[in-house]
Amino acid sequence: MIRIRPILLLLAAPVMLAAQGRVPALDPAGLQRALTARTWTIVEFGGPTCVPCMHMQPILGQLQHHYGPRARFYNFYVTEHLKEARAHQIMVMPTQVIFDPKGQEVFRHVGFWPQDVFMAALAKLGLK
Question: Looking at the whole model, is its pTM more than 0.85?
Fold first, then answer.
């Protein structure tokens, strides 16, 4: 019998969800953990009923699949965690924020972001 360790499922979850065209949503504690994970972290601050946010989901999923372990893509629902969204100065949904491996914000984009333009911005920041 094959046993899968729970930690492996936790690490594989973002990639499995990405294959379905979705990326996981974080709560405030999860956001803090993600920003200390020492990897590129891209967070879309939006909402589950925001139309442009919904249009971004397949793109975020494809990007997660493309970049694999080099970067992690997440959702953070502003409507559920308004205080934390304000701490990140989120004024419009969706806002995509790119954090470097040190957890520092290095770029942000507001609104729908076409995949090719998104990838070009990531490449310019050094994520290939």
Answer: no
